[in-house]
Every structure is written in C-alpha cells, then in structure tokens.
Amino acid sequence: MNKRSESIIHILLWGVGYFILLHETSTIGDFRKDTGPYWAPLLFGMLMSQLLFYTTAFYFVPKFLRLKKTKTLIVLVATALITIALFESFVDYNYLVNFFSSENESFLVYFYYNLFVGFIVLLVALSYALLKYWMRNEKLKRVLLEEKLSTEMAFLKSKINPHFLFNVLNSFYAKSLKHNVPELADGISKLAELMRYMVYDTNEDKLLLEKEIHHLKNFIQVYQLRIAEEDDVYINFDIQGDLNSVKVSPMLLIPFVENAIKHGVIPNEKSTIEIALKIKQDWMNFEVTNSIHKAANSIPDNSSGFGLDNLRKRLAVLYPEEHTLETREENGYFISSLGLKIDQAS
C-alpha cells in the first residue's frame, strides 16, 4: 500500500468514526448532546486520540523498535499516554465542563476516563505499527531472498566448477615457484584466496570486518598485477579505529575500490586512489577517492562487477535506515563514501 492510499484510508476511517459518534450517540462519558455543542468536546477528544495514535504508530515504534530499544519505547509510549490524558483532562475540566451534565465531577474522573480511552487508542496504535513493521520486514526478506536466488542462479549458470579452478591455480602457483617467479606466485595465491572468499565466505550474512579488509587488500594486489610497470599509479589504504569484533555484510567494500580502479586508473597517466576506513563507536565510514579520467581511456574491464547502483539496493535491504551512501566530484577527483551502523561479534 502506498502512502497516498494509506492517508486516504486513515482520513476516511477517522471521518466515518467521528460522523457515527456525532449522529448515532447522545452521550460519551460525561458528554451530553442536549447540554451544549456536542461536536466541540467530541472533536477535541478525537484530535487528542489522533495525536497519541500517530505519535506512537509513526514515530515511536518505527524509530525505537528498529534500534531494538524496547525499554525506551515503553517509557516514551507510557509518558505520551499520561501526558496527553492529563492535557485533555485539564481542557475538559477547565474549559469544556459547561458542555457536561455532571459539572461537579472531580478532575480525577476526567483523567481516569481519558486515560482509559487513550489506553485503547494506544493498543490499536501499537497493533497497527507492529503489523506494519512485520509486513515491511517480511517484504525485505522476500526481496533479499529473491536477489540471493537470482545471484546464485546466475552464478551457477556461468561458473566453472570452483574446485577445478582452484586446482588449476594451485598448478600455476607450483610452476611459478619452480621457475623462480615469486611475484607471480604471490599474485596467484592471492587470486585463489580471493576466489575462495567470493565463492564460500560471501554466503554468510555477516563477516568480521578484518576478514573483509584482508580480501579487499588481496583484490587490490591482484588488480595491481594488471598495471604495467611504467604506469604511474598510487594506491593508499588508511585504517583508523578498533576493528576488533566488528562485523559487516560481505562484499560491501570491494565495489567502491573496483569502481575506483575501473574509472580512475589510466595507462601512461598519473592516477591516484585513496582509501580510508574509520571506526568510531558503532559507526563505520569508508571513503574512496580516485582521479577522474575519460572512461574511454581507462583500464579495460569487461566485467560489470557489483556496481554502486546494485550496492544501493543491497544496502536498502541489509541496512534499512542504518547507512549513508554518497558520491561527488571535487577538484578533479571522484569521491564515494559509505557510512554504516556496525555490529559487534558476540
């Protein structure tokens, strides 16, 4: 259901509810239709109910349930219920009492009545918000499952048996050592390790960030093997903060570096790639800066890779409202930045 349809349904339900109460009842609590303008206190009470309903269903529950701050949510909801009931009772007792038939009722009578009505509204709001939260999560799970199945199917259609490839790489590794080419042997070893990571490790929901960085460095070194010695390419990787026990979803960092190398490294031209990762409390910032060159002259790369567009979709599913992704051009450089709420390994 889109927001427009949801808004229309809400307006209709509140409108119909108000119409029924106004025309089909002659008393609501101490309100009496024959003692004054019945619509005024009835409308005021409904506005207070709406305030409680929408504050709970559209702010408190979505924000604090997502952050798993259940205690904070309970305190805020209870505070909102009591505060609104007190305010409504104050207005009823001091300004709308002339519309009631029992003008000598105490303030507590109004408060208990409004508290009871507010509690019913609160239960409806919580039920509505939790149902929406559950449906949204189920939708995200389906999207993630469909993307995973689609990716696995495409991989199955295109891949050669990984064990065969690993055996071939092991043979190449042994031959390179036999012919005393250690640099090539090291590159083959890192390529095999990178392939194992992509084939096996990426099946996990979360990986240690240290492991993700290790494979990112392998990815960079394997790519550097493709760069000619005469090319002027500078790649720097700076890490700040404590990586210990930090976990992230796999294959989130490599697309940034892949994009930077693909578009920022030009044969026979000076190219710079700066990679910076910073951990601060429960937030990770990852930024990649590369020189801007004409795409036609960049290092050829027939693979599509993940791509930043696909990464945006993955982040929306894996880290809804818990990430930032920005790209910009500045002083001849292209800068891509990822901010992410991180988990600690248990």
Give a written overview of the molecule.
The protein has 346 residues and is an alpha+beta fold. The chain has 2 domains: 3-141, no CATH class; 200-344, Heat Shock Protein 90 (2-Layer Sandwich), CATH 3.30.565. The chain contains 9 helices and 10 strands. The strands form 3 sheets. Strands 4-6-7-9-8 form a 5-stranded mixed sheet, with helices on one face. It has a 3-stranded antiparallel sheet with strand order 3-5-10. Strands 1-2 form a two-stranded antiparallel ribbon. A hairpin with a 2-residue loop joins β8 and β9. The protein is elongated, with a radius of gyration of 31 Å.
Question: Count the strands?
Answer: 10
Radius of gyration: 31 Å
Uncertain regions: pLDDT < 50 for 5+ in a row? 296-306
CATH superfamily of the largest domain: Histidine kinase-like ATPase, C-terminal domain
Largest sheet: 5 strands, mixed
List the helices and strands and how they pair.
Elements: H1 3-24, E1 27-28, E2 31-32, H2 39-66, H3 70-95, H4 107-158, H5 162-178, H6 182-199, E3 207-208, H7 209-224, E4 233-240, E5 246-248, H8 254-264, E6 271-280, E7 283-291, H9 308-318, E8 323-330, E9 333-341, E10 343-344
Parallel strand pairs: 4-6
Antiparallel strand pairs: 1-2, 3-5, 5-10, 6-7, 7-9, 8-9
Helix pairs in contact: 1-2, 2-3, 2-4, 3-4, 5-6, 6-7, 7-8
